[in-house]
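Example 3.2
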Amino acid sequence: MAEDKLETLYTKVAQKVLKDTLHVRKGDSVTVESWDNGIPFARRVLVEARALGCPAILLYEDERAYIEGVRRAPDDSVGAMGRNEHGLLSATDAYVFIPGQALGPYSRTLKPGERAKSTRYNSSWYQAAEKAGLRGARLSFGYVGKDLARILGKRVEDVVRTQLEAALVDLGSLSALAGKITPALADGAQAELLTAGARMTFSLKGELQTEDGVVDDEDRREGANMAYVPPGFVGKEVDPESAEGTVVFTDTLTELGVISKIKLQFEKGSLASWESPESAKVKKLVESSSPERRKVNFFSLGLNPKLGYGWGQDRFVAGSLSLSGFGFRGQVKKGTLAVDGKPIMSGGKLVG
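Structure, written as tokens:
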């Protein structure tokens, strides 16, 4: 019975990704890339794509072969794209990617240096995808492995199921909600964030990012060819010299585990001090970034009402707020945010 329910969930998500996220039509060429852990879902994507009248193929990445290849291949060839992959992208209309848990930031399968080296293709892959004009979706459940599940205190299958269920959110509602928020996030706008008695201000400047689970023509023109599934946040770059004051993060997921409370103080844009019951972990995270780079450079607001905290995708939870750029991504659950005096979030709930 449990397997039947999971198969039904796979089918629903596969159909939604193909039809609503990627707008696949009869005759489109569909490529599905999957690691070992994503094969059952990948099968459903193939079946549903072919049911739509699409030629669909599966690109399989064997995890053991990948890891051994990273460790044995010549250094200059690790993480490099070949002509074969470039050719595949140029002939693809819709691309569904289910990554492997070894690529996740919380996995210990590969050392951080090995993981970084093996994914050096990222920029060239996106450039090739943009040139090809393909529409793509990345299923984040693929990153979920035993290491992440242990940090979260949950079973792998439960985290995977929860993320897939959150993928069934109404995409039209997400887009509409994002459309209400983004006009306030203009360059030069001043943000005020209140968290647990602390106050922080910062200025917005730079790229705006909307993750509403849909890849449309405007996204492709802007080079935003890949959508996150499950979706649900709006984000904006922050003027790195602008952060002033104090912010309190709670239950923040990091590579060193979940940290219950972190208090950071910023002066003239730079991180000046920090406090935490787990100060040794915070110190290690902060010191992974050089002193001159310990600044807030991006913030995002979660929009997805089908996600709850503690399932590996807290930044997508409706009413959440994330800040990054100082060695890790900090999580705010019950913050209050105003931009140029306009309320955006109150006590962890989106306004309006």
